[in-house]
Amino acid sequence: MRRRIQVNQLKIGMFIEDVEVGGAETASPFRPFLVSSAHDLQTIMSRHVMSVVIDIEKGTDVDRSAPPSMAKDQASFNAMLLTVFSVKQIDRARRSIGEIGPHLQQVLADARFRQSFANDAAGSAVERIMAATFENAGAVIAVAKLKEKDEVTFLHSLAVSALMVTFGRNLGHGEEEVRLLGLGGIVHDLGKVALPEKILTKSGKLTSEEMALVREHPQRGYEMVSKVGQVPPPVLDICRYHHERYDGSGYPGRLSGTKIPYVARLAAICDVYEALTTIRPYKRAFSQAEAISMMMTSPGHFDSQLLSAFVSKMVISGTLH
Ligand SMILES: [Fe+2]
Prior knowledge:
By secondary structure, the protein is an alpha+beta fold. The protein folds into 2 domains: 2-55, no CATH class; 70-316, Hypothetical protein af1432. The chain has helices spanning 38-46, 74-82, 87-114, 119-143, 152-170, 175-187, 190-193, 197-200, 208-214, 217-226, 233-241, 262-277, 288-296, 304-316, and strands at 2-6, 15-21, 24-25, 33-34, 51-55. Strands 1, 2, 3, 4 and 5 form a 5-stranded antiparallel beta sheet that branches. The longest helix has 28 residues, at 87-114. The two termini are 31 Å apart. Fe (ii) ion is lined by residues 188-189, 192, 217, 242-243.
């Protein structure tokens, strides 16, 4: 009997019948084999396989009692990072995030307490994000995945910005366009930051009124950022339209298809990918393969061409881990 599983569920002892890369079957024929060593597992991982078909009559099945394990504390998270990056790359990424931090915190604090946009601090943050991602994008984005409670907003803005900068570069955009994408990543959720504290910190389910307020955040953010005269239109578009969906079912404008500005379609992909792969203590996170497979099977949500480009230029290329 065959079973399709995510690549992070693979264990020694499983019999792999076939693999899927980027959501589609591999073009080259795959030779079924029994996973008998850690080296076999690494070989599969290094091929950027997204899901795997196993035969549970020829090998072991997944342990259905345990959810896929994700590193949830600093020590196991560090061990996970070290399977992909060198100590030097991780240290450099941590140092960069430490330098970006104060500028980004100022942008968030101004939005939260003064409902205003700190344009200069955002400019400083994006310059540093562009420099940090220039050679070390994978490590910066990976290090920002683990978020303690008080770091969630700050590291989400940073990581979405880093993803947009890197995706923009991998798509061939010039550095000035890339800077606007990075700035858009920083400001995309500023309207959410300005929401009442009790909604932001509520642990239970939001009421429909509270949900309606949350759904106002793209427009609120847009108004806050546009008060500063010189913010370029693509940055405002990212802020206002990053929750639109390709089939017209998003908000606030229910825009569809290419009526959604290109930069906002790009932001939607980076925003959702970042949110799905975020690791928080005591909270289930999705692996890269799970996140991509969920996004690719979410009909009507994303610009499918742009999502395919994200998979090939960010995932299969090995930029993201
Ligand atoms: Fe948002």
